[in-house]
Description:
Blueprint: H1 2-20, E1 31-51, E2 58-59, E3 70-81, E4 85-92, E5 95-101, E6 106-108, E7 111-113, E8 118-138, E9 142-162, E10 168-189, E11 194-205, E12 217-231, E13 236-252, E14 268-284
Antiparallel strand pairs: 1-2, 1-3, 1-14, 3-4, 4-8, 5-8, 6-7, 8-9, 9-10, 10-11, 11-12, 12-13, 13-14
Amino acid sequence: MKFSKSVVFILLIGLAFSFSLSAESHERNSIDISATAEIGILKVLYHDIQIGEGTHRFNYMTEGGQELLQLYNRFEVEGLIASRHEVSFLYQPLTLLTQTRVDKNITIDDITFKEDTPLDLKYGFDFFRGTYRYRFLDNGTWRASAGMALQLRNASIIFDGFDASGDEARVVTQDLGPVPVLSFAARRDDPRGFFLETGLDGFYAPVRYLNLRDVDVIGWLYDGAVRAGVSMDDYGEFYVSLRLLGGGADGTASSRTRWTQSKEDPRYTRNNLNLAVLSLGVRLK
Length: 285
């Protein structure tokens, strides 16, 4: 069932893209391509996780070393077809590696990590996103568009340390799956070459199937940014961006299907990630 729902959503994206090719004949061959890259700093605002019923809710900020600034990158290819149809492909690397020591015995999943021992942490949530938006406003000064996207999460969460007996122990949870997204963007251009733009992508799925899964896991995500920059005629644009990015899940997933999962039985997971990003970007046309 999960596979079939994903296929239906991908087909909808494909139909929307196909529709864009049926624009008026004088605009049919109008395709503008640009590539965007950002580099900056990332600050975790709040981040916790609980794996297993009745286990320790681990706070990455106060217990896991995520209070420091992290390097941030973002890469996107954008296309404008027939002056109205916006398509884009985004790759967002988002892997946080930290090291800490356990202050007290804590239980993550079915493993109790021993106090006063090292703990290595990986929180990997890289994702890919394909987006289609229809530009419903474009008067030379203001632009606005809305549409939908399909995001692929590529999650890998690892706790690596020592159990209560002093033996090496590891908790691993990994997941690759689709996430439906709603998308909105707007921009204002100044005659002097300056611009201000904003974008918001997000979704909230409180029930199964709405989040393209066949289990009752509540899922949510948001990705919003404000950019201010200057246009260099036909060559490209430079801008500074302030972004809020986050998401999470709450519920019991299905049984293990890979050896990379620590536990075979279905497990309860609650995860809540919230980030702020300040970055510099360039868009090449």
